[in-house]
Amino acid sequence: MNVDKPCGPFTFRAKTVLTGDAAQAVFSPGEVTVADRLITYVGPPRQGAAGRVIDLPAGMVLPAFINAHQHAAMALFRGYADDVRLMPWLRQHIWPLEEHLSSDDVYTGTLLACAEMIRSGTAAFLDMYMFPQAVVRAAEEAGMRIGVSWPFVGTLETAAPRFEHLAAGIAQWADSRLTQVWLGPHAPYTCSEDLLRRVGEYAGDRDLGIHVHLAESREEVEDMRGERGLSPIAYAREVGILGPRTVVAHAAVLEPADIAIMAASGASVAHCPVSNLKLGNGVAPVRQLLDAGVNVALGSDGAASTNTLDLFVEMRLAAWLQKSAAGDPASFTAGDALGLATIGGARALGLATGVLAAGRPADLVATQGWAAHLQPVHDPVSTLVYATRPDDVRYTVIDGALVLDDGVITTFDEEALLQEAGERARRLVEARM
Ligand SMILES: [Zn+2]
Questions:
Q1: Does the reported pTM lie above 0.90?
Q2: Which of 64, 199, 243, 411 is placed for a possible disulfide with 123 were both Cys, Cβ 3.0 to 4.6 Å?
Q3: Residues 44-79: pLDDT tens digits?
Q4: What DSSP line would sit under 170-197, residue for residue?
């Protein structure tokens, strides 16, 4: 399948269409038509839809998800080092393995992540990893939207060649519909102050996004306070990397002053509940961030730390954690959780997706719906967030292309990919020994 060619018109007719728009409009039954990469109709079923008609009498159509924090290629390390603290996990397990990674490993690992994301209803992701060209090669082959964050660590001096490499990437994808180039300074504990300041200036001069890990663990926050007398969020503002085009991954350990800084900066948070829980980093104050006017998206983090890239689980956990933290089940709804994965992600990445409306880019998902764990449906948003699983997703449309068509990935050979990924993962572990 050639995703560069616009697909002919096709129409979903479903039991339910969740638009995700400001009014949270729901059509039941509903219809969505796609043509020339755009949504051309959303509303009640009509007579005589043009082109192919996909009937889902128990199914649901909704905006596709956006995964706002990812290290996709780390899918190759899924399950390699679990149940370990963050710093030893990086220093003793992940970084030594990464020394042996080739660009082809990164391509294969990213494509493996793309397969999982497409199968679980994700159309776009914000990535941060080495060999960014290989990351984009995989995303392009998969037909996914990507914010590819050029990775930066070290000092301004050691990272200087990276800026030339970045300039080539910016030029290469300047006209791409699906690929945006971002700057990805890993974190304040891996990047020097002069490097972070340069990243902030470079991104500001060119209106590029900045994707950075901040306030992930208590240890990180305490170290930063000890060294500089500032929280990681306050430090990020100080060095000029916190602005409306910044996505802060995690923000799990925040003080009220940090929330005010985030709100004033216009930066988004990529909330990663599975990663935060699994690494014992606590619960991000998502309700408080939203109430302060901060845009919050949802991320899975890499599969090396979270094992799956399943935003259904992330949505569910996000809702449960906020309810539990507030001691109030009404404090965070299924609709709030869905908003993180859709419109919150779209805002974070500067995309016009996340909503089903005529004229918007056609990134959408359809579930089949006729399953014991999904019936009956009293409230479709509740069914979606609290009961739906990745294998209920039958169709994923990205930029108007059916990349998952009745449960089959159309853009690459998934079976061959699984074989290749297994072999590469085994060779990497052997190389380390
Ligand atoms: Zn991360």
A1: yes
A2: 64
A3: 999 887 799 999 999 999 999 999 999 999 999 999
A4: HHHTTT-SSEEEEEEE--TTTB-HHHHH
